[in-house]
Amino acid sequence: MKKVDVCLSPDLMHLYKTDDRTVVVVDILRATSCMTTAFAYGIQSITPFASLEDCRAMKSKGYFTSGERDGKKVEGFDLGNSPFEYMAEKLQGQKIAFTTTNGTQAIAKSMDAKEIVIGSFLNLSAVAKHIRQCQNDVLIVCAGWKGRFNLEDTLFAGALIESLRNEIELECDAPQACVHLYKLAKSNMIEFLKEASHVKRLANLNIFEDIKFCLTIDKYDVLPVLKGSKFEV
Ligand code: MLT
Hints:
By secondary structure, the protein is of the alpha/beta class.
């Protein structure tokens, strides 16, 4: 049976061997939710960068530059990190260079994986379907916040595992903890997350609609997969 584990912070990646695994990178608020939305609206590719300056340099190569630091749009970038920004018609068929505080750092730390896919509540069933069909064991990598645990990525891991129950074997206690938390939260995730650190951080920036949107399950049937250095669907 396929094994599934959860890395609760990118700073714990040294504990996991991923060269034979599919890694699902998750940053619910908001990097992987933005990526999912962008592909649902017809973006051609998203190239992730850990470094702001490497990302910025892609502007001269015809890319839209996008992302954030500490939740705020980067000065001089074309787009920030709200999923609603990625619904624009002008982005259809375009290439995006993307960097975020945690999401693209988690991707950078997952680069040894056999395969990297992007997970969010918005494409939960598309991720589950892919896991069912692929042969690899799986590691869900929660982006967290600057190396720390966060609740929303953990809830996604729990939701994904829950949707695959009876079809997978759980390794270690982290996946079990994710499922327990998800069961506590699933009837009202917005209420469950109201004291979560990044929800409060975004609220301080007057960002409210993004949270509700990023917690919507199965809005899109897209699965961004890393091909070379860029994500495509
Ligand atoms: C991140 O990558 O840290 C997040 O997506 C931050 C944010 O909400 O903009």
